[in-house]
Amino acid sequence: MPGARTHDIITVVTAIGGAAAYGLYAPQPDLAHGAVFTGTYLFAGFACAGDLDIKSAQYRRWGPLRFIWLPYQKIVPHRSWISHGMIAGGLIRALYLALVFLCLAAAGLALYSQVQGAEAAQQAARTQIEAMKGFLADYPTHIGIAIAGFILAGAVHTLTDAVSTWFKRRF
Ligand SMILES: [Zn+2]
Prior knowledge:
This protein is mainly α. The protein has one domain (about 5-95, about 140-170). The protein has helices at about 5-25, 30-45, 55-60, 70-75, 80-85, 90-115, 120-140, 140-170. The longest helix is centred in the last third of the chain and has 31 residues, at about 140-170. The protein is flat. The two termini are about 15 Å apart. The chain binds zinc ion (ZN). Zinc ion binds near residues 1, 50, 51, 157 and 161.
């Protein structure tokens, strides 16, 4: 299995190559779309690819927030299709992150309710839900592009693992 350094280099090189190709060859390149894709691709490549299923460099890069990946590591066997599937890997991690975000928001609201009372917490929850609905309605394309960035970074990671394994067996 290639080390984190190899994965990092491939992430950067493919991100630059992809951004250049998009700028040069897309009929109408959109700066915001390109930035969302490159940003999520780099983020997913460095800190949100398949090796979050073990205590890897990707996992350590989450710093004090790395605890959010402990349940993932407990559930997902290393290099299984759940973490290293070409499409499932990135998609499941994007969904996992969304779920973690919702859990943290719920925990925050529960805490807020203890301090400010149930009514204030309900009001805050309604505001949050409206804001989230608004975001989903206003930026469907951007969200789709971000998910694609996650999936592609996961796929490139898995391909790199596969090529490296093949070379090690062959030579
Ligand atoms: Zn891997």
